[in-house]
Amino acid sequence: MGKQTGRCVIVAAGDLSVTEIKVSQDDLLIAVDGGMEYCERLGLEPDLVLGDFDSVKCGQLARIAEWEAKSPERVIRLKPEKDDTDTLAAIRLALERGYRDFVFYGAVGGRRLEHTVANIQCLLFLRHRGAVGYLVDKAGVCFVMEDEEMRFPPSMEGYLSLFSLKGEALGVDIRGMKYELDNARITNDFPIGISNEFMGKEAVVGVRQGQLLGIVTYPC
Questions:
Q1: What is the value of pTM for the model shown?
Q2: 3-class SS of residue 185
């Protein structure tokens, strides 16, 4: 299938701090497991509901059963015993349908720290398949970079933190921010890249060899 013009918007079951999720007509909206409750809360109608439904409340289970009876193609039940997380299963499905731009809500926080780490790994999974993903909440956004450069507009505010996802990231450049780097080396055992500041001008961040986790934190 060819590349889709819209995004894949995935609503997971972690903490959801936003009060609105914008979805266009071309987007594919997937509620992953307990993300169904968030969609209902925000008045969103998912195109697909997917998961083993271990974090879904009784009310949503009844709703899912109704959908399954009327439109079984909208409900994808997964076995609890599986290698993929529910979110990764949703990613695979959307990739098969031609989606290459992904936005995740409810994918960080909550009492299950391991799911936040797993979702960060999912960003790298996407990057290795020619796609891009962002974990979004009210506080900011997470993304990954690999052998590439990113630009941020002068209107960007808050902080940017960069962490090496491998042993080291080489050729790291930061320009247009409070703390600049030129051809630097960032390792995964020293958090030198934390809490840089946007300065009201275009910022450019690049890594020539390696993988970086980027976290933008908006000002309070």
A1: 0.92
A2: strand
